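Recap quiz, item 2
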Amino acid sequence: MTNLIAPGLKRMSVSVTRKMSASLPGLRRLAQDKGLKIHHLGAGYPHPEVTDPRHFLEHEAGYLEHLTQVEGLNDPSVLPENLREAFSYGDTLGPPSTRQVFARVYGNDWNLEMKPDCLIPTVGATGGISLICSVFENAGLPLAYLTDAPTYAGFMARAGLCQQAKIYSVEMDGEGPIPAVFEQQIVAARAAGRLVPFYYTVPDGHNPAGFSFSAKRRLEILEIARREGILILEDAPYLYINFAAPADRQQPFVSLDPRQTVHLFTGSKIGFPGPRVGYLYSEASIEIANGEQASLAELALLQASADILFPNPAAYLGFEALLHEADFSERTSMWPVAEEKLDVYRENREIMLQGFESSLGAYPDLFHWTIPMAGFFSVFTFLSGTIRTDDEFIRKLVTEYGLVVIPMYDFYPPDARIRNPNAGLDQLRISFCFSESAGEQRRKDLTEAVSTFCTAVKHLAGVD
Ligand SMILES: Cc1ncc(COP(=O)(O)O)c(C=O)c1O
């Protein structure tokens, strides 16, 4: 032990998802000792079948070779510029070419004329969340972070690091955050002397709430945010993991108003999580000290230059390769990239929803599940009032049925659990994105997992 005294420094609590993954090997052994097969309905990871990097690595090598050709280098002893750039100290904004191509392709997909200089590289969406929190925390003022109840565990973990920030959460209905509660929470936070910089949300394929906001609700929330002078921090990892027909896809907040929005793009789901590629995009301008105006992109850039100094240029050039076709011409859209992944997720989603419907559809008074139009999750609710989805219940599902699912209660911020101590305690987050197997075996495993889940919940609810 040293004699350093750090008063005020607190040990943060660990999220239930982390606790689950820590306790899983033990629970798995217990289940396997009973001869039970483990059924994955918990993990929120991209499916291994769509994250095999081998084809991508070939394409990336070809793209870099193509860049060398474009440079006009024929002398193999001369180091190509793209190779030099990939392993050098770069710029906090990352390779300019990647930002320019991304701005065109993403802008085309989401009906937006994107300004490449407003794109700030981040370490995935996680880095984007942290970056924007840091920007506002630097001033040392008491803050209120507005978010949904339930909300993404990673956001709660980051918000929880800042002792002068408090989460003010907003309950949701089937369309999104409830506007009246949204307004009340802003008023309450301001009355408590807190600055409310943004509202953090995941409008498409909400993790963990398992649905996407309606178009109408997005406009209502945007209207309040404009009126109250609050940014919308839009975390968009599942924008392309979208199950709606193209004409029915919702507009993200960034398309509706890039000046009121801070949009977080990540390459983790459309590409690969490992390279940690992401962008924060905003055209917002805010008033800072002494009544000065500052663009949010500029504030984020300054923060990033101290936080990460510069993003990994090789990872960004690899992502740039993904924005090019097989013949290395620039893509006009990322939807064909998404389509390769969507085949698997669409199929898994159908297996889950059809399984629920055929086994549990006859009990609408007992069970409810969300129909996700994007993302990886559905929220399953027990309506009988007799089932409590606490840690003991989760443990029982693993050890008696081999089922791994995530309880919802821990996704409710502390204030929501004070308003309703039972919040989430009748719900589970069911994920349909991950299994250890591929192809036909994946279909069989998921079908079996869903069927085991339905048998278990009927048994536990006393209807078998
Ligand atoms: C809502 C949400 N935000 C952020 C992340 C993390 O994304 P990244 O890998 O880009 O940091 C996830 C991943 O599960 C997520 O669901």
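Residues 335-360 form the longest helix (26 residues).
The chain has 15 helices and 16 strands.
End of item.
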